[in-house]
Design goal:
Elements lengths: L9 E3 L5 E4 L4 E6 L3 E7 L4 E7 L21 H13 L8 E6 L7 H17 L4 E6 L3 E8 L5 E7 L11
Amino acid sequence: MIELTPRESRLNIHPGEWYFGNEYSSLYTVLGSCVALSVWHPTLKLGGFCHYLLAREPKHLTRSGLLEGPGRYASSVLPLLKQAMQRYGSLSDYQLGLFGGCDAFTYSVIGKQNILYAQQWLQDHKLRLAHSDVGGTSSRTLILNISSGALELKHYAIQMSGLPANNP
């Protein structure tokens, strides 16, 4: 569940959460192997993020499992975000961005699957990206300013404690 904060503040979107609207001045998230799809409507000044952990819900997990909730999976949250967008305008009116999915250490398969799922979903719905920064070996922070649509993206090296450094 998203914690509500006063109007005109920043909303932090955590893994498995999503938001669409204009009650906040900005949205913020931190990404590793997870992926965020950002959406922004330049005329209506509406925006949002979804921050999902996995492309699809694993078949071996039950609804009482650790990864419960539709926002955690691309297969369930992307249609929810699409429905929210369509309430206000044509999908082609939005500027979309795809971010995250780093392939650091053991999460490399998860990050790649998250990216590929989103790319296929966008293609299936004939949606084009205005911004994309996916893959690689660094985590990211992402901020969307809802009134301007400006995106601020920063990369951070992932520190793996206890692992030997690669020295050539």
